[in-house]
Target: FAD-binding domain-containing protein
Amino acid sequence: MSTSAETTTDSKPVSSAGYKGSDLPPLITDDPPRVLIAGAGLAGLFLGILLEKAGIPYEIFERSAEIKPLGAIMCLNPSIHPAFEQLGLYEQLKSFSKPGGDTTFYTDQLKVTASSGPIPTETLGYDFLLFARPALYDMLFKQIPSEKIHMSKKILSFQQNHEGVMLRFSDNTTVHGDILVGADGAHSSVRQHLHMILDQQGLLPKVDLKSMKKGYISLVGTTDTLDTAKYPFLTKPECETAFIIGDKNTPYTWVLFSVPGDKICWNVIVQLGIEELADDQFRSSDWVPQQNQKLMDLIRHFKTPYGTLGDLFDATPIEHVSKVYYEDKMFETWTHGRTVLIGDAAHKMLPSTGVGAVNAMQDAVILANCLYDIKPTSFDNIKEALKEFKDQRFDYITEQYTQSQVLAMMQYGHNFSERILRHMLLNWMPKSMRLSHQIKASEFRPQANFIPQVPDRGVNKVASQKPSRRIQKEKEEAAAAAKVAATV
Model:
């Protein structure tokens, strides 16, 4: 496999399928499959790190010249921590994180309506960790060898057949490999091109043609370092979270998190369809700092337990403020031929539960396991491995997707039924039932099959995962060979 997309534009003849005649990959080989990863987001980077450990050749192609991840708060739950521990990254992850602490729900007049504390560490074996998103991205990006990641590579199209897959980029270069992974986010170019081709062939389910739902829009930012004399709670080792929910006449919810570095990450969520003025402001404004400032000026008087939103806005550089749609959609078509979708490209979830990033990285773990099991490398074995990936993930993701919608309504919803739902979940549901639900949500903790496993942690059951067929077969062959040797 070439180490750079540019090397495929030399003078060698190109077949009608897009491959150089002298470089056609063999139909069956004992070499591991060559993986092309579209997208250098969390899913793509995590997959690259895993493939590096598995000894599977890969390259990552990112459309942007430079990625600037949102300064939003992120939460990773115990479902993904074992994989970080396997990769030797867990202690580094904890170094820029705070464990989850108290969460308090307020009215817009700061009346407390509900509160909850963290799950004891010994129960799950790990803490829920909260941090600013760029810190995680920077850590993962640094794990990828520089020669294996290519920036400013916008995908125009791709072709695939029984011999391989070829990507064509906007700079008129091409690259080919054995497998294409679309890890390029909610508006995935890989998904759009794959679905277009399948739709032309009458193979795409109609549900996959529908647009993603846009129910919420958010402004998000992280302050510079704050004065702990004014904000003493920042010195606590745990992350404190405050949800402030506007009255029934407004579409606003604003959320504050304490993060390392004596900073506050703030997030203002607007539910579309509740207030016409808010809809107009958030839909029509350009996504630039000047327009974000206008929106911030409209809401700077909103109260928080620590002053007004305006106090936090003034401590946040405007270039570090982002506006983003909260979109969601569960796609049915994740794989076809040599192509597979992971993360937001396959299932865009609402960020109400923090499971979007967790599930994207879990996708990477399970897909890496399936790719490791491909031996020999053939078209049939590749298709079987990609099907196995979807079979292991689809039902689980469907359940997670539904839960994210319900919790979004609970956290951000402002119509009558959503307010009733919030009151019931926060005030009527027993704490023991909420704890049981959180424990169950953390049972599935996939690990890479091809590197040493870390032990199960916590006092509760951890769900089993599918073992590696390749490793089992190799053990059986080694045992049979040892038996023959002993007989001789």
Summary: Residues 1-22 have pLDDT under 50 and may be disordered. The longest strand covers residues 98-107. The radius of gyration is 24 Å.
